[in-house]
Structure formats: structure tokens, C-alpha cells
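In response to reviewer comment 3 from the previous cycle, which asked for concrete evidence that the modeling workflow produces usable outputs, we include below a single protein chain processed end to end. The sequence was submitted unchanged, and the resulting C-alpha cells are shown without manual editing.
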Amino acid sequence: MTYGFRQAGIPVMVGVDIDASCRFPIEANNTGTLFVEKSVSDLAVDAVSAWYPKDVVRVLIGCAPCQPFSKYAVRNGPDERWRLLYDFLRLVRGVRPDIVSMENVPQLKLQKHPAYLDFVAGLEAEGYWVSDAIVHCGDYGVPQTRRRLVLIAGAGRSIDLISPSHHRHRTVRDAIGELPPIGPGGEPPANDPLHIAPRLSATNLERIRTTPEGGNWHDWPEKLRLACHLRSSGRYYGSVYGRMAWNKPGPTVTTQCYGYGNGRFGHPEQDRAISLREAALLQTFPQSYQFVSPGQRPRFRHVGRHIGNAVPVELGRAIALSIKRSYAVRNSGRGDTLQSTG
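The workflow returned the following C-alpha cells.
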């Protein structure tokens, strides 16, 4: 979200996360943005208010972890991380930003999640006009089938998301087709340490070799299938151990996107899972984006978490452009400056 807002011309003063490994990518790729390692639950209203320069339009962005709100997690009962939405609302009430924005999984709205309903009601009680919509990220240039809930709330004004910018959705080939071939577990090219994929076991290597472009475990001989695939319930997991298709958008990129068995994350033609760089490109990070400091070997778990948890850059940019358009239309001639924290 930070990089997308900056690409749209809205400076981000501060980025907050409880994960210390976020410091390098936030500060290295976003000159002038300060990283604060802290839980949102521990943020003080006065501290957040002080981050904004004077006489600017203040934007407060909050992107709570999506995993607790997924259709799989909700079945298991309340998650402690649900309260982060209430902490976000606490900050909104105290800071009184001009604009509030958040992005999360569609289930919050579709299933009328109590935490989300309370959040929206709280915003409206504070005088914010809330606009929320479930959007197909492909409509905004993200080469995935990903659908997300986007909320933008303005103090006394309605701000809608801009119209789709891509009527032809970008494909996997558009995103990663020009990267050089690599093998599983090998060394990355000298100019890109993130273009690396994990090793495959001998069995998984045999499995992916028998999987055609766009195919999955249904294409394997029975001797290669897992026990769960042979049960009747196995038919519901069609994307597991799948290959992407060149001329279609990719699947939703997750924090486990580097694992061949974690979804349709097999490369369309090379016998491996997608690399960390390919996952980042599918999330519309530029190829120059750095996730680890120079000379440091990337750790799949850490970098995968950064990539999978991120708001796709182009979706973040669309949100920022929506905010800028609203102020350009309603405040032409005033010269308002927008500043955000997230």
C-alpha cells in the first residue's frame, strides 16, 4: 500500500508493523518513509497525530492481517487479531484523519463479520462517509484472480474507487514471461537474488513433470497422488499442486506462494514453483523492489510473508488515485497536500 500511494504521488510519512523484518523493504524502497516497529494495539493517539506535518490532508491506512477473516479461519471461532480493527477505530477516533482506508478479504463484507460491522458503524458515528466495494484486482492491472474488499471513508465526503483501468486483464505471461529460466533449489542470477525457487523432492519433481500447463494433481497417475486426493473430498482441492497458465491471470498470491504444494503456484512450463521475484511481480511490485539488504540471502518464509501479505501495488495506487481525484474535483484551486500513515 505504501509503494502504491507513493507511485500515485501521496507521500507516506510512517509505516507501522509488529514484524521487525519489514524495516528494510519499507525504508529502502520508500525514501522518506519512517518504519516504526510496534503493534497497532500499542500506538498512542498523540504519537500518530504528531507524524503528520501541519496543514495537510491526513490519510490513515490500516490493513489488518487477512488470515483471521478468511472463510477458513472464521469457522474456527474468534481470533485474537480481530481486535486490531477495534484498535484501528480507536486511532481514527483520536486522530480524526481526513481520510481512512483499509483493504482486506471479501468475507468481512459478504459474511457481515461483526468486527467489520462495528468498524463501519463506528466510522459513520464519527461523521465519515463510508464507501466499500469488493473489487476484482485484475480490473486495476494486477495479474491475479484476486478479489478484495476496499474501504475508503472521507470526513464529510464520499470517495469512491476509480473506474477499472484494465478491461483486458494482465496474464501470467505479461507479468513474468521475460524472466530467465532457473531450476528448483539452484542459485539465483547474479543481478537478482530474489529470482530463486525452493528445492523439490524427487517425488514432487516427478509430479510437476507430469503436470501440463494449467493442470493439477488430477493429471497425475494414481501412484503419485496423495491419500487425501483419493478420498471423495479431494475433488474440492483442484488448485493444489497446480501449474499456472501462461495466458490467464495467476491465482491469489499468498504467504506460501513459493511452495509447489500450497496452491496453483507451479511455473507454467519450468519444473519448479514460482520464484520469490515472480511472486512479487504478480503482486505488481517492480522488478527493482528490494526485500532484503544487498548481500543477504533471502529467506523464503520471511520474504514470502512480505509478498503474500502485501496489498498489490497497483491496487494501492488505484486507491490513492481515487483519493486524489476526489480532492482535485471538490477542492480545485485550494492546493491541498495529502500525507498518509499506515
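The chain has a mean pLDDT of 91. We consider this sufficient to address the reviewer's concern, and the full set will be provided in the supplementary archive.
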